[in-house]
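Appendix C. Worked example: PDR/VanB family oxidoreductase
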Amino acid sequence: MSGPTQPPVSTPATLQVKVAAKRTEAQDICSLELVATDGGALPAFTAGAHIDVHLPNGLVRQYSLSNAPSETKRYVIGVLRDAASRGGSTAVHDLVAEGSTLTISTPRNLFPLESAAPHHLLLAGGIGITPMLAMAEHLAATGGAFTLHHCSRSRARTAFVDRLAAAPFAAHTHHHFDDGDAAQKLDIAATLQSAPAGTHLYVCGPQGFMDAVLSAGRAAGWPEEHLHREYFGAAPTAKADDGSFELQIASTGKVIKVLPDQTALEALHAGGIDIPMSCEQGVCGTCLTRVKAGTPDHRDQYLLPEEQAANDQFLPCCSRSKSARLVLDL
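Step 2, the predicted output written as structure tokens:
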């Protein structure tokens, strides 16, 4: 997610929803249609928004809304059963059924469309198609110019393929299958080169796919502010040589020690400091905390490189410290 420079955000409000429908969208991918338990309207959202879903096993996970933002009575999310899941996707597939009641957050958008862009290039890898669907629905409804490319391992593993084929923007959509012939595979460099001047790029999907797209954009000279991304998860960041360090609370002078096998966020919570959290992987920005002194060891996927270099904020859920102490603006 492109990380705006901002203070930590507050914990979003929650609401109760019912699973009105659970459908198989592709191999290992299901969708949930969520409606308000009272049958009323749901809070409005914008294309690119996500919700936190409180799962039956106690975990909280983030899922992008994939339906048209103009819809007021439902939210639709898509979930991949991930073999490397930490329990979230497995819970959705195995523990959530039609008729289940879930607690969710109100929508938040850390991956918005740039309204002033003359053209939008939407690049999705696998389940990364979910926020792109809402973007395409909104752009098609409002007359925005866009092209959507969806890369996936095979047609059998391509979620929402029938929905895209029947959509009024089907002509703007291109599928690329890893097991297909070479001619239909996505040429990232050529796609970027042929984009109209001023195009904004949006990418979501597996880490390797996103890294390839963003690297190609930077190599082609695209301005960083035209490159928008959303990460669904972060790679493990723990290191064998992680040591302890201290966190000092600027307002009180209180010092909290972070142990080698403990995250800074865990240490803060254990010390009675209430920091809002959500993904616990450094991708959503919920726990973003200001740093007044010291040098963070940034391990997140949220802050832009220049924001990390400023060293005046960090994500305590995953990042650590290069200095013996960080002084936090808390």
